Amino acid sequence: MNNLKKVVLAEDNSTLSLLLKFRLEKEGYELLIAEDGKEAIELIETHEPQLILTDIMMPFISGLEVISHVRNKLKVQTPIIVFSAAGQEEMVLKAFNLGANDFMGKPFSPNELVIRVKRLLA
Amino acid sequence: MIDFQHLLTYLEQLPLLVKVVWILIGFLIIFIILLIFYLKYLRGYLRKKETISKKLFTEYEANLINFLYSQTEEEINEEQQIIVDKMKTCITNKFKRKIFISVMSKLKNDISGEMADSINNLYIKTNLINHSITKLKSNKWYVITAGIKELNLFEITNVFEQVKKHENHPKQEVRNEVQLYFVSLFHFKGLDFLNTLKSPISEWNQIQLLEILQKFDDQEISDITPWLKSSNESVVLFSLKLAKIYNQFQIIDTLLELLNHQSKIIRLKTIEVLNYFQVNEAKKILKNNFKNSSEDEQIAFFQMLENTVEITDEEFIVHNTKHVNFQVRVLALKILKRLNNKKLLDLKNKATNDEDKLIFNYLENN
Q1: Per-residue pLDDT for A27 more than 90?
Q2: pLDDT tens for each residue of B35-90
Q3: SS3 annotation, chain B
Q4: Does B61 sit within 8 Å of A15, measured CB to CB?
Q5: Which fold has domain A5-108?
Q6: pLDDT at residue B346, rounded to an integer
Q7: Which of A49, B152, B263, B294 is the most buried (most CB within 10 A)?
Q8: A53 pLDDT exceeds 80?
Q9: How big is the A-B interface in CB pairs under 8 Å?
Q10: Are B110 and A16 a contacting pair at CB < 8 A?
């Protein structure tokens, strides 16, 4: 039986997704990658992950909509870390209001992300 | 065969103009057929190129990630050297080089720390740096811009002099990129380009530069006085923004001198900064200049008086309650309400103008 903690990563930058997948898998997590919000919601509903990492700006469904879906429709309290770019401060506030647990501004250090993931999943 | 001969005979008998039209139609049909074949070929070529591009992108992405995760304490280990050598060969091809740079840029924009440093290292080790430096010598402005952008993204500071040569380039896009390079890599020291800049800094670039500056931990700004005295108007306007953001109280005397600047926009922005600093000394100069000032400056001065008004300003304010500009009149009465409400009521009783009565009613209820 697979006991690895599942993490859904919703990020449209494929290179960053690949980098984080390698990094987090090395730390013992199972990474499920979505290229957009729509795919992320499908993965969350199917796999019920222990943590969600989501970018704010994504095609089809934004990160904010993903958070709203998790908190208001699925009604689960899975920890959510939001990635935001410079100039998206208002979006970050909205993300927190919707129920995000933490945020990281891009560019961010993958090592710092691992620390935050570990803290939330401890 | 008989039909064909019949057709030729028929064509020969036609008037010249009709013959020409038929020949043109023939040529057009051939041209359209050739064009269809060409477009079909082009579509196939572009699709093939896109497929190759996607394949290479995935391959280079994996190479880059492997390079980053092979990092040990050594500057570059054997495994990394294999990747470097492989990429060195690949990037001799312009198409492949473009894809590799886009893979690296995409990741570099989103990560920081040790991994970002490793990407910079890879950029140097694969000799991509030399390609970027070569771009600086191009005659095409967009090639130079791309070169500077790459050098900035991968934090190459030792090409400062080569980049500096383009600081007064005729194309604004190149100048913007040069300025971003200076400030991103040399922080406040990078603003020294303002000493020699002859062309304007675009409004958008000013915003970008200020945003970059605010990210740095060290917020020690150099003396901005020479820039406030610059003959380049945009440099003065940018320096006024710096003065406000970085609370440069020590340059107030220079700001007071700028109240007599020949440019209206500089005078206006100076009043706004002086208002922010609440400089009382400015009021005397502004009162003396008031009559000859533009309406925008007069409004800005009254907005300043809202924050700095004193009892000695009453006479000047009362005088301007009859100003031709509606906004100045409202501001004057609003300030007077705070300063001397009795005087305001006197003026209200004497008011004959319907517009003024409306202002008095508004002030009474607000």
Answers
A1: yes
A2: 999 999 999 999 999 999 999 999 999 999 999 998 777 777 888 999 999 999 99
A3: CHHHHHHHHHHHHCCHHHHHHHHHHHHHHHHHHHHHHHHHHHHHHHHHHHHHHHHHHHHHHHHHHHHHHCCCCCCCCHHHHHHHHHHHHHCCCHHHHHHHHHHHHHHHCCECCHHHHHHHHHHHHCCHHHHHHHHCCCCCHHHHHHHHHHHHHCCCCCCHHHHHCCCCCCCHHHHHHHHHHHHHHHHHHHHHHHHCCCCCCCHHHHHHHHHHHHHCCCCCCCCCHHHHCCCCHHHHHHHHHHHHHCCCHHHHHHHHHHCCCCCHHHHHHHHHHHHHHCCCHHHHHHHHHHHHCCHHHHHHHHHHHHHHCCHHHHHHHHHHHHCCCHHHHHHHHHHHHHHCHHHHHHHHHHCCCHHHHHHHHHHHHC
A4: yes
A5: Rossmann fold (3.40.50)
A6: 85
A7: A49
A8: yes
A9: 50
A10: yes
Comparing CB atoms, the residue among B110, B116, B211 nearest residue A13 is B110
Interface test with A, best of B111, B122, B152, B213 (most A CBs within 10 A): B111
Q: Do B106 and A18 touch (CB under 8 A)?
A: no
pTM: 0.83
Cβ distance A15 to B113 less than 8 Å, yes or no, reads no
Q: Which residues of chain B have pLDDT under 50?
A: none
Domain locations in chain A? 5-108
Give yes or no for residue A30 having a pLDDT over 90: yes
Partners of residue B63 in chain A, C-beta under 8 Å: none
Band the pLDDT of A2: cuts 50, 70, 90. low
Q: Which residues of B touch A109 (CB under 8 A)?
A: 111-115
Q: Is the pLDDT of residue A46 over 70?
A: yes
Residue of B nearest to A18 (CA): B65
Are A15 and B103 in contact (CB < 8 Å)?
Answer: yes
Among the partner residues A14, A15, A107, nearest to B116 by beta-carbon distance: A107
Distance (Å) from the C-alpha of residue B184 to the closest C-alpha of chain A?
A: 14
